[in-house]
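FAQ: What does the model actually see?

It sees only this:
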Amino acid sequence: MAVAGAKVSLKREDRSVDVDVLSKDDGQFSFASVSAGPFELTVTSPGFANQTFSGNLRSGETYVVPQIVLAIATAVAEVRVVPAQVEVAEDEIKDQEKQRALGFIPNFYVSYVPNAAPLRPKQKFELAWKTIIDPVTFGLNGVIAGVEQGSDDFSGYGQGAEGYAKRYAAAYAGLATGTLIGSAILPSLLKQDPRYFYKGTGSKRSRALYAVANSVICKGDNGRWQANYSGILGSLAAGGISTLYYPAKDRDAVRLTVEDTLIGIGATAAANLLQEFVIRKFTPNVTNHGPGKTQSLIGKLTTTLIHSGD
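And it is asked to produce this:
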């Protein structure tokens, strides 16, 4: 196949001549009035590798250059293989599940990665389940039941071991339903992220406002901030369900539901303030999946493919 429009450059060793011509439709080219002596031809054309040819033109001679074959250029394509978001999220969750304040208190629902990958529904349920069945959860729930018994809250449960067991079961049921509904079921249905995203920068005032605001707003799975319908509706649902197992005289459904919801929002705001200013200092094993780690993951998975172009 003849290559038309190829650039043919003629150069002399003494640089006295530097001439370019283009090949014709039949691939032919020619130079006129070239002085005798050594010369070098360089042929370039898009899609082909450069080709060079050297010769020596004698005085009065017409030099016929042998057929020059242009090889198809080797194209280099770099393929960047980036981990899927679900894999990145799984990697981040594994690190979150190692986060324990003072080395033992679960601190799973805090992300120190501002641009963390969104969680899949399965991952939201896994995080909720791990929180519910954590040994520390059972222990703290026991303390809550003990405080309630000591102050004779929900007196209809009575005292003694039976009263304590009822308070313990009620407190645990409230925690479990609240966590499942507000941190797994509704976030999955409404596509919201149940985690608190640590800010850590800016003035103390801006960080405090951010922490308090995050009791009623949250990140959506699309990365945008929105009203925290999951948390608020989850508190309402958990409060409504709790009326089924509280003592009869304490079953004021509206009062309990509203009270539990407001308490839940206030407790979330307080917990967020602690997260922003205190808890990280006492939480070992905090891993930052910032740009550095993401880039290293991509770097490990980057590959270069060599193929022939058409």
